[in-house]
């Protein structure tokens, strides 16, 4: 590893915490050394209580200790830890900051939705080739969803909205499976939120989806029994397929959802909420299809660190 600038990017969201360790290739593209994901559900109950639960914090810190060992093993020159939606508005943030510093030796940054959107757009665009036309990147997380419209490396408009798979499940979709009334209430809430959204979703000629909801939908649609990043990356879902998948997930129990594909339990529990959000957004888009990208905010973070380092 000597002579190679290696960086570690950690993204801590409402449902998952993820690590990317990478260096820069001779062509400026990322050379991936390691990529890990742990479903820790840090944001469990946050929508209702406004605080992190002690067990959710401990799950997150355990993942941080595991990531710290990998960072040390790869002799990383720089580590950046960003926390997104769940950490923006909790009363006990200091307990989170202290635990992360003890486990990883770095300070957690709570980034705002604008920064999250910018990094997600950069990451998505690094992995999917598109022509010079309006592109919409959708990053549907557990607590929030980022919508970014742009072209090339330029962003025209962006927004972070407080709808996510965990938030929707906890606030509306209480039953297993959710009732028709619960689904209608969730859809009404998502539609009202999107109606006041400053990003013109219909203007996009290409729609790219990143993060766990869309990658899981692709894996289910392809009938994968084991998760395969190569098969998921750049796969395409039509609006019709997304709508059908959302309907199927919303009418299934968590046990049934878990059997639909290579899904971990904490993903299966909230996937119906994420699918509903993606369905509603894609219904507003005129592109007719969604390109699934495995490159996302982590790749955006790593690229930015490597650009600074060089």
TrEMBL record:
Boundaries of every Ppx/GppA phosphatase N-terminal domain copy: 34-303
Alphabetized Gene3D superfamilies for the sequence: 3.30.420.40, Exopolyphosphatase. Domain 2
Top-rank taxon: Bacteria
CDD domains in alphabetical order: ASKHA_NBD_MtPPX2-like (cd24119)
Record-linked PANTHER family: EXOPOLYPHOSPHATASE, EXOPOLYPHOSPHATASE 2
Protein name in the entry: Exopolyphosphatase
Organism for this UniProt entry: Cutibacterium namnetense
């Amino acid at each position: 590893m000597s002579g190679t600038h290696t960086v570690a990017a950690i993204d801590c969201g409402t449902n998952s915490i993820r690590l990317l360790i990478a260096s820069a290739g001779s062509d400026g593209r990322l050379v991936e050394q390691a990529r890990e994901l742990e479903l820790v559900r840090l944001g469990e109950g946050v929508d209702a209580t406004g605080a992190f639960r002690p067990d959710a914090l401990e799950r997150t810190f355990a993942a941080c200790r595991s990531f710290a060992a990998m960072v040390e093993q790869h002799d990383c020159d720089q580590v950046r830890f960003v926390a997104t939606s769940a950490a923006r508005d909790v009363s006990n943030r200091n307990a989170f900051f202290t635990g992360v510093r003890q486990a990883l030796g770095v300070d957690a940054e709570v980034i705002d939705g604008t920064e999250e959107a910018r990094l997600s757009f950069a990451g998505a665009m690094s992995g999917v080739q598109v022509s010079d036309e309006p592109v919409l990147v959708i990053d549907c997380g557990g607590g929030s969803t980022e919508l970014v419209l742009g072209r090339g490396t330029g962003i025209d408009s962006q927004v972070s909205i407080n709808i996510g798979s965990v938030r929707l499940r906890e606030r509306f979709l209480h039953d297993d499976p959710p009732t028709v009334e619960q689904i209608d209430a969730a859809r009404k809430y998502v539609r009202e939120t999107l109606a006041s959204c400053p990003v013109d979703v219909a203007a996009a000629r290409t729609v790219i989806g990143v993060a766990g909801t869309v990658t899981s939908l692709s894996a289910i649609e392809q009938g994968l029994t084991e998760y395969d990043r190569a098969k998921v990356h750049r796969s395409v879902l039509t609006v019709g397929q997304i709508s059908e998948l959302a309907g199927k997930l919303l009418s299934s129990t968590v046990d049934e959802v878990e059997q639909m594909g290579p899904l971990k339990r904490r993903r299966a529990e909230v996937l119906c909420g994420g699918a509903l959000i993606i369905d509603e957004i894609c219904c507003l888009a005129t592109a007719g299809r969604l390109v699934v990208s495995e490159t996302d905010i982590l790749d955006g973070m790593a690229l930015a660190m490597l650009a600074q380092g060089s």
